[in-house]
Design goal:
Largest sheet: none
Strand content: under 5%
Radius of gyration: 21 Å
Number of domains: 1
Structural class: mainly alpha
Amino acid sequence: MTPLTPDLGRKAARLPWLNIARWFTGLIGIGAVIAVILNIADIERLLAVIRDIEPSWLLLALLTQAMTYGAAAGVWFQVLRADGRSIPFHALYRLSLAQLFAEQALPSSGLSGALLVVKGLVNRGIEEATGMGCMLVGMVSYYAGYLLAITASFVILFSEHDLRDPHMTVLVLPLLIVAGLFCLLIMAVLGFTFWLRRRGGVPHLPARLLSWLQRWHAGWSMLERLVQMLSEAPAALLQSRPLLIRTTALQLTVFLIDAVTFTIMLQAIGAHLRYDIVFACFVLASLVGSVLPVPLGLGSFEASCVALLHLFQVPVETGLIAVLLLRGFTFWLPMIPGLWFAHRELQASPPPGEDLDRRLENHTSS
């Protein structure tokens, strides 16, 4: 079995066209949304909104956004502590930034980020089984926190607007459909994950089908290794209700802090909107970006968020600038340190006796 670091590196090199196409499609999407909104918006008012941005609010937004990566690292910290392990918190914080870069830069549906984090934990002396336990608990708690945030957002939306309002009908019906699809997707992912875990590995596939998967979906080898490691994850971690409650609360905190950042962006351009409404707009727009088949949610998140803000009397020009500022602080800006930390993790070597690939090979051959 090939080492993990070259595996991620070769994946990026083997699919440059897919990587470029993914980013190019996403940028076209967001560009199209901006173009449509600019045709609707008042350009002079838009420029006035940009001129009135207060930099002091943006500095505060940097601080709140930095806190989200602390909450994400806190999930792994809680899992490691429950398993009797310990890693300095600042190391986990760097891993959360590295994971962000890997998930956005490599088109593998999050597999690259998961394997990078496992490698980072192994580099620090944590067994890969415990590392996969961190990923497993993180995934379950993330979806649980996401569902709680979505439910709260719909409650806020329904409490603030009359359902007979035609604008509500136009927005809410598609959102309900998207939310239903998302819930089905969550159940399918979690069900498939637990099914594979009970089987103890990847099911045997026909040779021709396996060859097709390896040819047309280069991430299959990564998925295969991910599931093999998943079968080693300590089962007791998912059976710990206090651990799941704590990690779900931390995942929900990430959404709450992102909404704080969004509120600050609105304040920076002179818009005043209640925090709970901003939270609902952010979460429901994120839901649209997560479900629709648009690379990285670029374009779909921006369009839906501006529309939801407009439902609460926020001008289109103000909503567009606020959303673009938010996207810059939560997506583009963290990619810079994420690239640096991801490179360091990929170049690092695990300590003696903790070679991830050798142990995996021994496990699969036994």
